[in-house]
Amino acid sequence: MRLPIDVFLYTTLLFVIVVLVVFYVRLQRKFVKEKEQRRLMAEQTSQEVLAAAQKEAARMLDGARIKAGEIINNAQFFNSQQTRVLADTIEKTRVEYQRQFSRELDLATRESIGAVQSISQSINSSLEAQQKAAQDELSRTIEEIKTTAKKEALALFDKELSEKVGTVAREILKREIDMNEHRELVINSLDQAKKDGLF
Amino acid sequence: MDYSEINIKTTSDVTVLRQEIDLLLNSLYHSDIEKILKEKVRASTAELIGDKREQELNSYLEGLLDYLSGLPVVELALAYEPTPEHIAAFSEWFRGQSKSVILNLRHDPSLIGGATISANGKYRDYSIRNYVKTIIQPNS
Q1: What are phi and psi of A153, to 5 degrees?
Q2: Spatial distance between the Cα atoms of A152 and B56, rounded to a whole number of angstroms
Q3: Considering the domain boundaries, does residue A197 fall inside one?
Q4: Chain A residues within an 8 Å CB radius of B114
Q5: B138: nearest CA in chain A?
Q6: Which residue has the higher pLDDT, A90 or B65?
Q7: pLDDT in tens, B118-128
Q8: Domain around B124
Q9: In a domain, B18, yes or no
């Protein structure tokens, strides 16, 4: 018995549709799974950036604080009042900036995750043929975000902290130093210059 | 002649003294030299000249110009504008080292305190600004 041609055509068409649907569903699952993996990778990377940056900032701040203490204690031209004022000011500024820095870095990290996620979404809508190239781009982007965010955050933090502490110290010391102390500071400078073989 | 006792501290002092020397050199053989000594130069300069006249005065002034040209200049940038007494103290510091120098003073409030010093082609920063910079940028 031969099937009528139209029944054969409909059956074949139905079969093709079923195959396409199955293929589409599998493809979608694959995309969703990969999207989730990328999101987790981006989050992990951002967390690493945050942790590394905070560790670096803490190291830098501690180093600056210790160095500040040494220099202040060793600087003969500061009297005890000036030493205390300067040390307090630097400590207050350090604590305040550490707090601000952590907040800004946290925000920057969240923005980085958002940026990576949006890239991931755009990849999801592209064709499978572009997947490999997009994957490479994603890796590169994550690496760039990681490097740039860390460098920029640390550089900005360093610059702002330096400027702030410098400004505060300058203003305080300007008020603290009277004419006779200025004179003594210059004489001390001349003594030191002589020791350094300037004349 | 010994010029080491002449009271010259800064480049401004040198400028004024040079103007007076030029004026005197141009009037050496003129009759108005006495009037110039009384009215156009400072008492301290007239005192240096004393009763030297004509050839003797010419030699003295030429020698003084050479002496001034040979004095080393120390550039001193300060955070504040020093009083005459302070300038005298700085100058005296050099005399205490048996050195005659001319101070070229500059006012730079950004130094906060202390000084930057340039001498003999060398430069050093002994300012508080530099100390603060060292505190907040330990690796720079």
Answers
A1: -65, -45
A2: 73
A3: no
A4: 77, 185-186, 188-189
A5: A64
A6: B65
A7: 999 999 999 98
A8: 73-136
A9: yes
SS3 labels along chain B: CCCCCCCCCEHHHHHHHHHHHHHHHHCCCCCCHHHHHHHCCCHHHHHHHCCCCHHHHHHHHHHHHHHHHHCCEEEEEECCCCCHHHHHHHHHHHHHCCCCCEEEEEECHHHCCCEEEEECCEEEECCHHHHHHHHHCCCC
Compute and round to an integer the Cα radius of gyration of chain B: 19
How far is it between the farthest Cα atoms of chain B?
69
Place of tokens 């008492």: B43
Q: How many domains does chain A have?
A: 1
Mutation for B interface: A61, A167, A189, most B CBs within 10 A = A189
Angle between helices B54-70 and B11-26 (to 10 degrees): 150
Q: Are both B52 and B79 inside the same structural domain?
A: no
Task: Render pLDDT for A41-71 as a digit per residue (tens, 0 to 9).
Answer: 877 776 776 677 677 767 766 776 666 666 5
Q: Is residue A9 part of a domain?
A: no
Query: What is the least distance, in Å, from the CA of A144 to any CA of chain B?
Result: 26
ipTM of the complex: 0.91
Measure CB to CB from residue A190 to each of B93, B113, B136 and give the nearest one.
B93
Instruction: Measure CB to CB from residue A199 to each of B82, B120, B132 and give the nearest one.
Output: B120
Residue A69 contacts residue B138 (beta carbons within 8 Å): no
Min distance B83 CA to chain A CA atoms (Å): 9
**Same domain for B18 and B54?**
yes
Task: Tell me: do B95 and B107 sit in the same domain.
Answer: yes
Q: How far from B125 is each of A108, A190, B122, CA to CA, in Å?
A: 39, 11, 10
B16 belongs to a structural domain: yes
